[in-house]
Amino acid sequence: MVVIANQDGTYSLTERTQNLTADNQAINLNTLIIQTSRSNTKKENSPQVVTVITRQQIEDQLSINSDSSQALSSLLPAYSPNTQKLNNSSQTFRGRSVLYMVDGVPQSNPIREGSRSAHTIDLAMVDRIEVIHGASAVHGLGATGGIINFITKSNRSNEVKQHVDVQLTTPTDEISSDTLGYKIGYQVEGSADNFDYLVGLTNEVQGIYLDADGNYVGAATVRGDIMDSKSHDAFVKLGYWLTDDKRLELEVNKYRLKSRMNFTGVDGDRENGVATSSVKGTPPNGVAPYNDVQTTSLFYTDSDLDGMEFKAQVFHQDFEGRYGASNSNSFQDVSIAPVGTLYDQSQNQSEKMGAKFSLTKDDLLNNSLSITTGLDLLQDKTSQTLILTNRTYVPETEYTNYAPFIQFEYKPTERLVLQAGARNEHAKLDVDTYQTVATNKNTSVSVNGGSPSFSDTVYNAGAVFKLTPSMSVFANYSQGFGMPDVGRILRGVSTADQDVDTLIDLSPILTDNYEAGFRIHRNAFDFELSAYQSNSDLGSRIENQNGLYVVKREKKEIHGAEASLGFQLNKEHKLQASYSYIQGKSDTDGDGKVDTKLTGADIPPNRLVTSWNARWDEKLSSLLQVSHAFSRSFDDEDLHFDGYTLVDASVSYKLPVGKMSVAVANLFNEDYFTYYSQAAYANDSFYFKGRGRTLTLAYGLDF
């Protein structure tokens, strides 16, 4: 028998030799196992809030917008509103860093956080998205705010099945070849004997965006943009059943998004409400920004190793993120050119190699105790170069980490589930002696290399108590382990002969997360409410100092609440609503007390997202979704945020051959500045308006 993931997030049990299609008379297993938990935890038994975005929800979002960050923002109110740019700076989750993963492989680059890790895979390759809300140490480095794990598609059929789809996106006025976007995708899957496969290809071209007034949206010439870009994704997954219990699986994903450089950004004027705009023409300096990522994984699973389940994974990732050219203060060197005249552009390189091992025994004490133990290994080599002058901007930094962990789940009664665990982090940084790049005020200085190391144990403990079969309460304490932006710290050293070993700013971020709530699942009604507190004694905040962005290490406290409601009116209609409330402060004067409101660079606005899904008959279905971001004020009056409401709608219809969908994003053509533009940084170059109304036509065919 084989467990097959269904599109609705549940699982089915079927014979492996059968044709794995929807026509099978499979046994449906409604209990959803959270793969990201690593300990076979059922969703209903999780002491943390967990969201599973199903394949159907992903397809609904893709019919409206192909941007993965927009899909997450539309479904997760605690996730910051989409920047609508390649750069995902300020897109936090519950006010802290997100660990993005693809099938458990970390995509984030915390050693030199270039804010590009949200765009490493096309959602067309993703089966579901598992989201753990709040700090978690189950996967180690980077998950101080939560984990977003993209679970890729797997073969579902013994027969060869193919799928092709095409998509066209256009504004509803000012239509031209510059504003059109299109996408084409192809997938094939099947199996023969013990071997199965899935191959996917996508190619997308995006045009320039228009705001609600029909004007060009400002191009993020330096940080990188999604509009006016070309991207492709090639995905391969090969599986082989060694026996009925043992499986080997190889997965490779190659993703590249590159600017077409047809437009150049023009600074706006925040004081007078003039948005950053774009003009047609190639930027005068540099080469095209891009994201280029290749992730390779090899999995081995033995579901019956002397009555235990063994999982092993080895992975490798090459990541390159290139930014656009600018005459930034941090690039200036009078020995090369007069101050203010030197243009350069930076490029991040990160190579990760790692392995994950886990062993689970879940039938102890008469099936009441489950124990999972394992070991994670990671090596991350990261550097940043200035490619036009061939200078080292951030020296190669090698981060090595090994972390044994253990996790317990105990059910003393049918109504009570207790969970606890510990993870022992051993981390080391290796940096050779290096020379900093001169800035407009400082000459280059020498910094002595070093190998600072850290060893900390992070803990978690939680409980779920079922008041009734349909109602439960939960509470959880979990610690998260993260690093500050080491690369930004290293490149910002201005005093000669400092030692890397003595830079306290390299100390890790330990986050304590407390959470409590309750959930109800009764027939057609679902409700969940939770409140949380997230504290760190040595947080990380980016601050602009005379044009240079530096890392400030400060105490940080965040608290908030989340609520979600789902109601199945009948078999055809479902209503959903989710709300996130969040507040946060940091200690900016060093007196040990938090005193300054966190800005939009750190925390999202309070948000409400609602949706109505309707299946009118076997052929016709529709989606209407509304997202409202509430206004927010900050201590810095220049960062006041005026809220806005976005409405999206889509309709799909099954034709005699294939399926067609029509979607309208920003249905009422809301005229607004993005949250990032208003609330993160008061910068005329980043004062972007949001995208106006667009129409997307799509057609898909299975054969």
UniProtKB/TrEMBL annotation:
Residues 43-147 form the TonB-dependent receptor plug domain. It is a multi-pass membrane protein. Keywords: Cell outer membrane, Membrane, Receptor, TonB box, Transmembrane, Transmembrane beta strand, Transport. It comes from the Bacteria. Signal peptide: none annotated. Residues 258-667 form the TonB-dependent receptor-like beta-barrel domain. InterPro entries: Beta-barrel_TonB (IPR000531), Beta-barrel_TonB_sf (IPR036942), Plug_dom (IPR012910), Plug_dom_sf (IPR037066), TonB-dep_rcpt-like (IPR039426). The keyword Membrane applies. GO terms for molecular function: siderophore uptake transmembrane transporter activity. It is found in: Cell outer membrane. Its main location: membrane. GO terms for biological process: siderophore transmembrane transport. One of its GO terms (cellular component) is cell outer membrane. Belongs to the TonB-dependent receptor family. This is TonB-dependent receptor. It comes from Marinomonas arctica. The lineage of its organism: Bacteria, Pseudomonadati, Pseudomonadota, Gammaproteobacteria, Oceanospirillales.
